[in-house]
Amino acid sequence: MNSAFVTSRASSLDVGQALSISLRGVEELLPQDEWVKKLQRSEATGQPLRIKLGLDPTAPDIHLGHTVVLNKMRQLQDLGHTVIFLIGDFTSTIGDPSGRNSTRPPLTREQIEANAQTYYQQASLVLDPARTEIRYNSEWSDALGARGLIQLAAKYTVARMMERDDFDKRFKGGQSISVHEFLYPLMQGYDSVALKADLELGGTDQKFNLLMGRHLQQEYGQEPQCILTMPLLEGLDGVEKMSKSKNNYIGISEEPNSMFAKVLSISDELMWKWFTLLSFRSLEDIASLKAEVAGGRNPKDAKVLLAREITTRFHSAQAADAAEQDFANRSRGGVPEQIPEVQLGGAPLGIAHLLKQAGLAPSTSEGNRLIDGGGVRVDSVVISDKGLKLEAGSYVVQVGKRKFARVILGK
């Protein structure tokens, strides 16, 4: 058989596999034909593609919603391509207007530096640090200067900028748009020019900014990047996107017992989307598991597998084992092995005051509300009497399913 044909056939199979991995769980890959050509060229030359993900350090912690794009980066990294983890220390001083109905307050340099310190450390729990290029966009943005910024701004029109949905809505609604907000997509797009990116990743809310990178690369005579958008991950409530402000998130630095239990709390329906976007299992394995559940297997079994995988990734297999045992113990009404110990005085002490002082309720009124709802236990006994006063002694106090404290109450 012609050896050139064999090589070509093997190459096309490798490209096909790479395309399949690229498309897993994605919202859009644009333009797909250009991405295939880039993959083919990389396969033929052995030159890895440059894949960029930019994150502004607007908060110190990363949650599972952020890892959707990080997982995709890792998949492409495992294909041998160069992954660029870009920390937007310059763009953070502007504030991303994406999805905003008002001007986002810019962060101070001190806030940015504090948040950036933890970003890469946490992202390294998903990415391979040895094969990740870390960059800060202040490298080229600060050097651009006023003259360079004016020249950059000349490469895009106000009319096209106003095509952006959030700008259009705010303008029509009579809400203010500051001129500096126009600079954000320009500077994010210029990042792609500086890094000579072949592909940029982001959430669906970043599409305008990603397309800006393509436009500016063409303006600067570069081959334009392709863009890949990932769906926004719904949080624990199954409705809103995962967000700290919505309190429906799982932080990747969260302690393992809490992480495991929170994964098990999601709905059976949402579980399959989480499998697709968060699990490293093959799509074939996930489809097989889904078929087993459809055939009568308890969906909790599948959810435990997901909880174990996520907890193991960010902690360890041993931590996942312990978290599973802890969850099973709590489900049987047991007390976790390790609970915080609190020493209080003032016995006899009213139960609502005890809950507040032990940090189990934010106020005595909230403590009384929890008692009314049957959510308070002392030594495994449900408390219904809001007038209860506890004498000096040691008590295991539980609020809801996850809050415990061993209270040592003195006079």
Automatic annotation (TrEMBL):
GO terms for biological process: tyrosyl-tRNA aminoacylation. It is an enzyme of class 6 (ligase). PROSITE patterns: AA_TRNA_LIGASE_I, S4. Its main location: cytoplasm. GO terms for cellular component: cytosol. It catalyses: tRNA(Tyr) + L-tyrosine + ATP = L-tyrosyl-tRNA(Tyr) + AMP + diphosphate + H(+). Residues 354-393 form the RNA-binding S4 domain. A motif ('KMSKS' region) lies at residues 241-245. A motif ('HIGH' region) lies at residues 57-66. Keywords: Aminoacyl-tRNA synthetase, ATP-binding, Cytoplasm, Ligase, Nucleotide-binding, Protein biosynthesis, RNA-binding. InterPro entries: aa-tRNA-synth_I_CS (IPR001412), aa-tRNA-synth_Ic (IPR002305), Rossmann-like_a/b/a_fold (IPR014729), S4_RNA-bd (IPR002942), S4_RNA-bd_sf (IPR036986), Tyr-tRNA-ligase (IPR002307), Tyr-tRNA-ligase_bac-type (IPR024088), Tyr-tRNA-ligase_bac_2 (IPR024108). GO terms for molecular function: ATP binding; RNA binding; tyrosine-tRNA ligase activity. It is found in: Cytoplasm. Its EC number is 6.1.1.1. ATP binds at K244. Belongs to the class-I aminoacyl-tRNA synthetase family. TyrS type 2 subfamily. Homodimer. Catalyzes the attachment of tyrosine to tRNA(Tyr) in a two-step reaction: tyrosine is first activated by ATP to form Tyr-AMP and then transferred to the acceptor end of tRNA(Tyr). This is Tyrosine--tRNA ligase.
